[in-house]
Specification:
656 residues, alpha/beta, five-stranded parallel β-sheet, 23 helices
Length: 656
């Protein structure tokens, strides 16, 4: 086992179904250089990507406005409800995720501060604004949100989250702090409504925030992580204190996956340098709010603010003050902070001076130029300076599937020494089960070609029938470990699931002769639908049951159009909004809107998703100075994501 000075910082954490490689997150930072339609330039993707290259587990985007008409804070905000801007945001998600980090989209609504300049620029009004109650603000009459407008806002958040997920983001961050719309409703000073959305009762004032989270959950599904940023204290006279922050967090508990505790309100001058701590504040000055809130909730808690001291950050996690440490300006001063900490180079880290040069230049020049990091704000200019590493490293790869093979080939191409271990007798991973599918011959050709390239490369030592264990890693002493241990089918906890006539999709692909004449498939994702078509080609009568309102195309809507043609051609019956409640010898009992219905079947096949084999991967976390997880063992996705992450992480190796 390699020794690590900061083991708690590099203990992965699972939020929802998403595994994060460490406890160091890149908190939201804006990107002001957008055009009139809110389109982000290529510089934005490079800016966020650089933090992922540096080792952050999650990188959160700029503020994405969920309602341009009513919630736009400044003309420089990104408008997520404008489909014309989506491609530019998708580039950000892809740029971040291909380096092994989780991309998060920050969802924002300005509320009573909508359609006006920032307070620091005079706060001039440029349009109508709505808040919790009617009030006067800088000579402008702010109107109260009525019931219809509140419901519209909730729906807008849900739609924005669904859009972010479809664009490739692995998490959303709901901004409910710093004086923005959701915090306006949380504030006992601002929200004096007399209906269910406000007043002295915290449950009423928190209702909008909680309703937003619940609507997002319905839109994105049960496993997709939701982070919510709150102000643990407004930190000014007349604002609420930590007691109210605790009450807010308790209302939020269980409705999201991570409570991100910040502080302050952007409209109060003296509080700006508490929210964004100045050099006059002590390190970790706002940690106390997260630490206090964590005592009262079961949901994981993140802290943020003036965090750059490795010893302090390690102590925060080790002592249980927070579960996640978030950094903003520190990752502008040195985006490689996580990687340097992991590899024992903490003395090389450039510590943020908290001079606010980055923030000031972002607002005045459109780019966050850092006083001590000349790369910051110029990431795109130097992005392609990815020379061949001067040092050859010994790389151990666990898993010979899609990601493992690509990582091995790319590492070898760039001069590293590679040992690729696969615990079965064949490279290719679980996709090998589809070798008999007549409409996927090129998949098998691709797997064969990759396997042949691995076997022929003299820089790669291939070990089949070999599982990578901590003991093996100790024996081999690699500089780097890539864990690509894959995923396994989820077996749903349905009464009757262990019946002799029930099999997994993987087993059905490998031995289609096991399927009877009438087949019911549980799950209308790509695996279930393609399997249904495969079996229908052999003359089976196929019925597919899906709990969601629609079939799941996995983000590949064009492929789905081809699937629909085949579904119609072979007469496959798909029943959405149908939950399998039990399996009997006669078939599947499904709960539908019309009541319980029997779907007759000789064979029942479950295809309800994959579970990451992350335990095997995590056992290797501290077995080498550098450790990376990729592919399905992080989050089950697709071939595109696995090859992209493997190629990119391998190219990152030894460059920085």
């Amino acid at each position: 086992m390699a020794e690590f000075k900061y083991p708690h910082l590099f203990e992965p954490i699972r939020l929802g179904n998403q595994l994060f490689r460490n406890r160091l997150f890149a908190s939201p930072t804006g990107f002001q250089d957008v055009d009139d339609s809110g389109w982000l330039p290529a510089e934005a993707a490079a800016y966020y990507e650089r933090k992922a290259i540096g080792g952050a587990a999650s990188v959160t985007s700029c503020e994405c406005i969920v309602d341009t008409e009513l919630g736009l804070g400044t003309p420089r905000h990104f408008r997520l409800d404008n489909p014309m801007s989506h491609y530019s945001l998708a580039r950000v998600a892809h740029a971040v995720s291909r380096h092994g980090a989780v991309a998060s989209a920050e969802l924002q609504h300005a509320g009573m501060y909508a359609n006006r300049d920032l307070a620091m620029f005079g706060g001039g009004s440029t349009g109508a604004a709505y808040g919790p109650v009617e009030t006067e603000l800088n000579g402008r009459r702010v109107l109260p949100m009525d019931e219809a407008m509140i419901e519209r806002t909730i729906a807008k958040y849900a739609q924005a989250a669904a859009a972010a997920k479809s664009l490739g983001f692995g998490m959303v961050t709901v901004h409910a702090g710093h004086g923005w719309m959701l915090q306006q409703f949380l504030s006992p000073t601002l929200n004096t409504r007399t209906d269910k959305w406000g007043g002295p009762d915290i449950e009423n004032r928190a209702r909008l925030m909680v309703s937003v989270c619940d609507a997002i959950r319905k839109a994105v599904g049960p496993g997709f992580p939701i982070e919510v940023r709150i102000s643990g204290s407004e930190v000014y006279e007349g604002g609420y204190g930590i007691e109210e922050g605790i009450a807010i967090a308790k209302q939020l508990d269980g409705h999201c996956n991570l409570i991100h505790v910040s502080a302050g309100s952007h409209e109060v001058d003296e509080v700006f340098t508490v929210t964004h701590p100045s050099m006059f504040m002590e390190d970790g000055c706002n940690v106390k709010y997260a630490a206090e809130i964590k005592k009262h909730v079961t949901t994981p808690v993140a802290t943020v603010g003036a965090l750059s001291d490795p010893e302090l950050m390690e102590e925060i996690i080790a002592s249980g003050k927070a579960d996640v440490v978030e950094m903003a300006r520190q990752l502008l001063a040195d985006p490689d902070t996580p990687n340097k900490l992991r590899t024992g180079r903490e003395k090389e880290i450039r510590r943020c001076m908290r001079c606010l040069s980055c923030f000031s230049s972002e607002l005045t020049h459109g780019a966050p130029y850092c006083a001590i990091n000349p790369e910051c704000g110029r990431e795109l200019e130097i992005k392609y300076d990815n020379a061949r590493p001067a040092v050859s490293k010994k790389v151990l790869i666990a898993g010979g599937g899609i990601g493992g093979m690509q990582a091995a080939l790319t590492c070898a191409e760039r001069g590293h020494q590679v040992i690729l271990c696969e615990k079965t007798d064949r490279l290719g991973g679980t996709l090998r089960c589809e070798s008999k599918v007549p409409f996927k011959p090129n998949l098998d050709r691709y797997l064969n070609a990759q396997a042949a390239a691995v076997a022929a490369n003299p820089a790669i030592e291939l070990r089949l029938n070999t599982a990578v264990t901590p003991a093996l890693a100790e024996e081999l002493k690699p500089d780097v470990i890539f864990a690509a241990t894959g995923a396994r089918p989820v077996k749903p906890p349905i009464p009757g699931i262990d019946g002799e006539h029930v099999i997994s999709a993987e087993e059905a692909y490998q031995a289609p002769e096991k399927a009877g004449n009438r087949v019911v498939i549980l799950g209308a994702g790509l695996v279930g639908i393609e399997l249904g078509i495969f079996l229908a080609m052999q003359g089976r009568k196929i019925t597919i049951l899906e709990m969601a309102p629609t079939m799941n195309d996995g983000g590949n809507f064009l492929h789905a159009s081809g699937l629909r043609v085949q579904i119609k051609k072979y007469g496959i019956d798909i029943h959405c909004s149908t939950k399998a409640s039990s399996i009997t010898e006669e078939g599947v009992i499904g709960q539908t809107e019309a009541g319980d219905t029997l779907f007759p079947a000789d064979t029942v096949i479950y295809a309800v998703g994959q579970r990451s084999v992350s335990e095997e991967a995590l056992a290797l976390n501290y077995c080498a100075p550098e450790f990376y997880m990729l592919g399905d063992c992080v989050s089950p996705r697709n071939i595109t994501a696995a090859t992209s992450a493997a190629y990119t992480l391998a190219r990152d190796l030894g460059v920085r």
